[in-house]
Specification:
It is built from one helix and twelve strands; from the N terminus they run αββββββββββββ. It is mainly β.
Length: about 150
């Protein structure tokens, strides 16, 4: 390898490190994910600014798919047991979502858009299903199943 080729390769490497290694400014969005069991899966995405999302899955084979788009939205999911599924979509501003699911085989699908909406969903037992679509401003939905 010649000196010129080595210098050229080093320059390209430094440029890549500076570009790829630079922090991405995502408008202060936050995602905190914790998983303890086996075979849990999470897919999460955010766009906008000042969105917060927390996902905790304790048991086995739980799956969470969550997206946020907008500003100052808050999603908290939960899940313990096994084979729980949570799918949530949140867009707009100042929305709060929820979902908990403690048992086994629960499925919650939540879709929230608009402004300043609140949505819950707690399914404590086994095999619960909840599908919620919330649009507009100032809506409140609570679902509790046992």
């Amino acid at each position: 390898m010649t000196r010129f080729t080595l210098l050229k390769s080093a320059t390209v490497a430094v440029a890549l490190i500076l570009t790829v290694g630079a922090p991405a400014f995502a408008g202060s969005n936050q995602i905190r994910i914790e998983q303890w069991g086996v075979h849990n899966g999470i897919g999460a995405g955010q766009s906008g600014y000042r969105n917060r999302m927390t996902v905790t899955q304790d048991g086995w084979r739980n799956t969470t798919i969550a997206t946020q788009d907008g500003a100052r939205n808050r999603t908290v999911i939960g899940q313990t047991g096994t084979n729980n599924l949570s799918e949530s979509t949140q867009s707009g501003r100042c929305n709060v979502l929820g979902v908990a699911q403690f048992g086994n085989g629960n499925a919650a699908s939540t879709d929230q858009s608009g402004r300043c909406n609140a949505l819950g969903v707690i399914q404590a037992g086994n095999g619960g299903t909840a599908n919620v679509v919330q649009r507009g401003t100032g809506n409140i939905t609570v679902i509790v199943q046992d």
